[in-house]
């Protein structure tokens, strides 16, 4: 029994793009490549091995011999082409963007090439996403599947399995529970460890704690640092920094931010904060954000900004700030990794006051806060960002002229040097070249950007002594195929 707060919308991999869906579907479907547990440095073979050209624009996948779907049929290149072009063709799918700019071609029954116009060193990480799972093409097409917006296979995939993973979807209710059972035709590396796995919707982390302590569940996914500290030695806690970053946005658009638009104001905020004190609110597994790229990704900086009140006050004077009250907006009902935004905002408010900046807090529900944030209408706000896939390129959108940069009113011509670093990192053709470009980008963003990274919350997976091999992953949170009974 696994307790988690549901973000589950569908049993159709091609339409899924939410955490609980990723967790469940990763156990039912295989992708071309994968990550094993917390090892996310480089994708490893799942259904296929991969070779790329020197320009990182052509990727050849060779399928493993004899891998089978849950009906016993063999996985072949037609299944891969159908599965990936189906996601590409379903323009209403949240996962559709993963296939942007990628051409899929069958070479022979066991070989497929994926090509891009520009270098794409992140493509191997992209294809690990559960949304790009490989489906039994004949079975799905027999049940309404197509490679366009007329696809009608979602209902079928909500109550049946068309994958090659170690488990089958026995039943699913997106509001309450999903039940997995072993796939009798599975012939991959990760043998099912349990005859039945129930993923249960438990929205309150306090209830998850009670269930785990009382033996009503075996694993809790959403406990915060304080809660896992209550667990005794009969329980195992796997804690590590997540891939999410909580940050402050300081809008550079004069029409939106007025005084915040001066780059010196963002500098004043950045050096006014005591990051160690902020981190105290985050709990087990959390770390200070060392930049816009979280610590586990290529290019992440070794250390973050340190408080420097003299530098902050000098920058504040240069910004033209004259004591105006600045409103800090943030979602009040959407904790990340157990970190509540309100106490963090209150501490930021107090620390900025010490530096001479007057801040008024304006919490609001996520549903009403998200639209002005995405639309670039918030002058000063606290938000969070996580990767679309396990690769540092997921954090290039913070750059000037990019998606998140534009939410802060930061146009490409506002900082051409950082914009060029984004381009260099995105178009690198070697791992070494990209790592250097990512690090230069992260360093520059600490000095000049309109973002103030605060905290990388921890993720805490707590289990009873009956379960072993509990491992976290950026894409699917809990790696269910790895779970085994103790002993």
List keywords for this structure.
487 residues; Dipeptide-binding Protein, domain 1; Dipeptide-binding Protein, domain 3; 2 domains; seven-stranded mixed beta sheet; 23% strand
Q: Share of helix among residues?
A: 25-40%
The strand count comes to: 23
Mean pLDDT: 95
In CATH, the architecture of the largest domain is: Roll
The DSSP helix count reads 16
CATH topology of the largest domain: Dipeptide-binding Protein, domain 3
Largest sheet: 7 strands, mixed
What's the CATH H-level homologous superfamily of the largest domain?
Answer: Dipeptide-binding Protein, Domain 3
Q: Bin the strand percentage.
A: 15-25%
How many structurally independent domains? 2
CATH class of the largest domain: Alpha Beta
Word description of this protein:
The chain is an alpha+beta fold. It folds into 2 domains: 161 residues, Dipeptide-binding Protein, domain 1 (Alpha-Beta Complex), CATH 3.90.76.10; 212 residues, Dipeptide-binding Protein, Domain 3 (Dipeptide-binding Protein, domain 3). Helices cover 28% and strands 23% of the residues. The chain contains 16 helices and 23 strands. The strands form 7 sheets. Strands 8-9-10-1-11-19-12 form a 7-stranded mixed β-sheet, sandwiched between helices. Helix 15 packs antiparallel against helix 16. The model has no long low-confidence stretch (mean pLDDT 95).
């Amino acid at each position: 029994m696994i307790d988690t707060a549901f973000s589950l919308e569908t049993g159709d991999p091609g339409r899924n793009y939410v955490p609980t869906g990723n967790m469940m579907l990763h156990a039912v479907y295989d992708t071309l490549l994968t990550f094993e547990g917390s090892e996310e440095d480089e994708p490893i073979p799942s259904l296929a091995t991969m070779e790329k050209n020197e320009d990182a624009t052509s990727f050849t996948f060779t399928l493993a011999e004899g891998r089978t779907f849950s009906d016993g049929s063999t996985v072949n290149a037609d299944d891969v082409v159908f599965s990936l072009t189906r996601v590409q063709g379903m323009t209403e799918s949240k996962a559709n963007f993963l296939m942007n700019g990628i051409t899929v071609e069958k070479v022979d029954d066991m070989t497929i090439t994926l090509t891009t116009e520009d270098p794409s060193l992140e493509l191997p990480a992209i294809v690990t996403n559960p949304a790009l799972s490989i489906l039994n093409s004949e079975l799905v097409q027999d049940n309404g599947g197509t490679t366009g917006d007329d696809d009608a296979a979602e209902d079928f995939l909500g109550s049946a399995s068309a994958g090659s993973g170690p488990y089958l979807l026995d039943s699913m209710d997106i509001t309450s529970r999903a039940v997995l059972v072993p796939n009798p035709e599975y012939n991959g590396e990760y043998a099912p460890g349990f005859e039945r796995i129930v993923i249960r919707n438990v929205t309150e982390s306090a209830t998850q704690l009670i269930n785990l302590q009382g033996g009503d569940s075996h694993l809790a996914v959403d406990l915060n640092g304080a809660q896992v500290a209550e667990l005794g030695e009969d329980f195992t806690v796997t804690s590590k920094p997540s891939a999410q970053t909580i940050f402050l946005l300081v809008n550079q658009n004069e029409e939106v931010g007025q005084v915040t638009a001066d780059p010196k104001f963002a500098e004043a905020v950045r050096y006014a904060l005591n990051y160690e004190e902020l981190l105290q609110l985050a709990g087990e597994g959390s770390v200070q954000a060392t930049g816009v790229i979280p610590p586990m990704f290529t290019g992440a900086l070794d250390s973050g900004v340190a408080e420097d009140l003299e530098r902050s006050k000098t920058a504040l004077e240069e910004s033209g700030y004259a004591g105006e009250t600045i409103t800090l907006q943030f979602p009040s009902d959407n904790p990340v990794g157990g970190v509540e935004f309100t106490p963090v905002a209150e501490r930021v408010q107090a620390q900025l006051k010490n530096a001479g900046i007057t801040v008024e807090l304006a919490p609001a529900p996520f549903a009403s806060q998200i639209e002005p944030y995405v639309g670039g209408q918030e002058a000063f706000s606290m938000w969070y960002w996580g990767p679309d896939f396990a690769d540092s390129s997921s954090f290039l959108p913070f750059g000037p002229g990019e998606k998140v940069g534009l939410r802060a009113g930061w146009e490409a011509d506002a900082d051409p040097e950082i914009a060029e670093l984004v381009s260099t990192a995105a178009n690198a053709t070697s791992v070494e070249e990209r790592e250097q470009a990512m690090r230069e980008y992260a360093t520059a963003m600490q000095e000049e950007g309109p973002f103030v990274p605060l905290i990388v919350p921890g993720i805490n997976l707590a289990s009873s002594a009956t379960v072993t091999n509990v491992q976290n992953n950026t894409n699917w949170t809990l790696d269910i195929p790895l779970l085994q009974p103790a002993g």
